[in-house]
Every structure is written in structure tokens, then in C-alpha cells.
Specification:
single chain; alpha/beta; 7-stranded mixed β-sheet; 14 strands; 15 helices
């Protein structure tokens, strides 16, 4: 986990890293952060001209034509980069669909089928761990060259194992009584993974861990800065958060709200703002995430299951409209004895958002 965390930090700073696996190595840089120095370091470690790795939906837009399938449906696409495209501004425009000027169709950008299909998915996964745009400049490299330049090395196995390792290594690191407006008897417990990353929180209303044979009410709530804190009308997150806490306070056994650091269904706040811009241009919330190169839902419910186990709550009634949350927790060993509906009326701004959740995500909204 340590190597992944450090590699992500370097990518966010614009520094290349080395990805190794199966006897191969790639030198990588994040397209949205790399500058001239990072590109020079990448060139110094590269054994061949670099390509740009993109999710297939984004690659099709950059190339202005369909991307030939070279593997699984969601496999990354590789785009050849001419010298004219190997500058920070061009790379950012190709990576970011909301950049001011998208690159026009150009013979300079062409598919590079067959490029390191074994390592490319892990390269994109590493960018996603850092909540960067999943767009990586990549080139075959030698481990010796990377070591000579002082580049950090991370293995494919470490990258692919990271989500599970981060979820299952969560430990409770702090807890305090925090009386809330709608729940005077509330506590907040903080959980941190072994890599020292972002903390997840559990809001305990009453004493749900002492419910015995009774399954207390529980909710998985992904953090939403815009909705929870600012009262954004684009979503229903704020009302769902406050409504859940009030509902738990009215329960004899109380309840637990797991406040997970998975903003924007796991894409992070910056990318969520980019997705909002795409939605203003006509895309719905699902297609906007895919246009950025992310999946429709990037959340990991193993985080919630680990927190519930640590608190001592093996069975719950889940307050949700999302059947995927029920299935996700059950797959992780949590007994979900029932689903409790959690509906809030549209506000005139989020009507299309709620309609998309019902029609395309399968939420049970009546």
C-alpha cells in the first residue's frame, strides 16, 4: 500500500513513476499534471515513443472516431503521440473533456492497438486511485533507467490489490461525542486505512452497537461537499444526510450513518465539478462520469462493511433506495435484514438527476 500511496502522490505532482509487472515496465505520467520537467524525465526512462492511455469513451472523442476493440470492453485505449502533441497543454486538452479548447480531429493522433495490454489497466487504475483524470502518458521503460533517474517503482499487483487492502485495513483512530441538531446523543468515529489516506467517518446515533438481536438502522452516505455542506440543489444528498440522522434519532436502537470519502460516486470533488459542467452541456450524471473516463459508479462498499464489523454491527436494516448497496454489503458478509426506503421529493432543479438514478441506476424511487 505504501508504494501505491507514494506513486499516486508523485503523479499528482507531475512526477513520472515506474509501473512493473510480468517482466515488463512502463514509465507513467498523469496527463493533467505533467509539465516540461516531468516529460523530460519520462523521455529519459523511455525505451520507445510514449502513448496516451485513455478510457475508451474518452479516446473515441479525442480521435473523433470509434476505437477498435483490442481487449475487454472497458480496456484502456492507447493513442500514439506525435512530437507536436507531447506538450503539457495538448496533453491536458486530450485528457480533460471540459478543457476550453478540445483538440480537433488530427492525423497526429492515431490509435496504438496492442500497447502493453497487460499493464495498461493497472496504469489507469493508479490514476483513479489518485482521483486524477484517467489519462496517463506511458512508454516502455527499463527498471534500471527508472532507478537511475530516481523514479518511484510500484508493481501491478500492488496497484490492483490497493482498493481491497485500503478497505480491509481500516482501523478506528478517534471517537468523540458530538451532539447534533437532530440527534443530541451522537458520536463520530474516524477510521483510517494503513496507508494513512483520507479518513472515513461513522456517525453513531444512540447505541446501535448494543442493539443485540435487533438490526439497527444504517445508511451508507458518500460525502458530498456541494450537497451536504453548501445545500446544492443539483442532488438530494443534503436532505438524505439530515433526514437519515433524524430518522435514526427516532429509533429506539438508534442507528449508524457511514460517511464515506467517496465524493461523486468515487471520482472525487474536482472530477465531480467537471462532470457538472458536462451535465450542463446535456449529458446525464452517468454519461458525464463515463466521458471523464470513469465508470458509472466507482465506489467500494468493502469500506462500509469493514467499518460495520469494527463497530460491532453484523446485521442492519439498510436505509437506501439503491439495490446495489444492499447487494454490495451482503457480498461482504453483512446481514441486511431489510431495505428501508429513503425518498425525498424533487426540488425543480434535481428532477432530471433523480430521473436518471431511477432509469439508469435502478434506484427504487417509486
Amino acid at each position: 500500500m505504501r508504494a501505491v500511496h507514494r506513486a499516486v502522490s508523485d503523479l499528482r505532482r507531475g512526477t513520472p513513476v515506474l509501473l512493473e509487472g510480468g517482466g515488463e515496465a512502463l514509465v507513467l505520467a498523469a496527463a493533467e499534471t505533467v509539465g516540461a520537467r516531468g516529460l523530460a524525465e519520462l523521455a529519459g526512462a523511455a525505451l520507445a515513443p510514449p502513448v496516451l492511455l485513455l478510457a475508451a469513451p474518452r479516446a473515441a472523442v479525442v480521435l473523433a472516431r470509434p476505437v477498435p476493440a483490442t481487449g475487454p470492453e472497458e480496456a484502456p485505449a492507447a493513442i500514439r503521440l506525435s512530437p507536436a502533441l507531447l506538450d503539457p497543454d495538448s496533453l491536458r486538452r486530450m485528457a480533460d473533456p471540459v478543457a476550453d479548447q478540445l483538440l480537433p480531429e488530427s492525423p497526429q493522433a492515431a490509435p496504438a492497438p496492442g500497447f502493453s495490454q497487460a499493464l495498461s489497466p493497472a496504469a489507469i487504475a493508479l490514476g483513479k486511485v489518485g482521483r486524477l483524470l484517467p489519462a496517463l502518458v506511458a512508454a516502455p521503460a527499463s527498471a534500471a533507467a527508472g532507478a537511475r533517474l530516481g523514479l518511484l517503482s510500484v508493481s501491478v499487483a500492488e496497484v490492483l490489490a490497493y482498493p481491497a487492502s485500503a478497505a480491509t485495513s481500516l482501523t478506528r483512530v478517534a471517537e468523540a461525542r458530538v451532539p447534533l441538531e437532530d440527534a443530541p446523543e451522537a458520536r463520530i468515529a474516524a477510521f483510517r486505512a494503513a496507508d494513512g489516506g483520507i479518513e472515513h467517518l461513522a456517525i453513531l446515533v444512540g447505541r446501535p452497537e448494543e442493539a443485540g438481536a435487533t438490526a439497527p438502522l444504517a445508511r451508507i452516505h458518500s460525502e458530498c461537499f456541494t450537497g451536504d455542506l453548501l445545500g446544492s440543489l443539483r442532488c438530494d444528498c443534503g436532505p438524505q444526510l439530515r433526514g437519515a440522522i433524524a430518522r435514526m434519532a427516532a429509533e429506539e436502537s438508534g442507528g449508524v450513518l457511514l460517511y464515506l470519502a467517496q465524493e461523486g460516486r468515487g471520482i472525487g470533488l474536482v472530477n465531480k465539478l467537471r462532470a457538472y459542467t458536462l451535465q450542463d452541456g446535456g449529458l446525464d450524471t452517468l454519461d458525464a462520469n463515463r466521458a471523464l473516463g470513469y465508470g458509472a459508479d466507482e465506489r467500494d462498499f468493502r469500506v462500509a462493511a469493514t467499518m460495520l464489523e469494527a463497530i460491532g454491527i453484523p446485521r442492519i436494516r439498510l436505509l437506501t433506495n439503491n439495490p446495489d448497496k444492499v447487494a454490495g454489503l451482503a457480498a461482504c458478509g453483512i446481514e441486511v435484514t431489510g431495505r428501508v426506503s429513503h425518498l425525498f421529493a424533487a426540488n425543480g432543479v434535481n428532477d432530471a438527476y433523480l430521473a436518471t438514478k431511477k432509469a439508469r441506476f435502478g434506484h427504487l424511487l417509486g
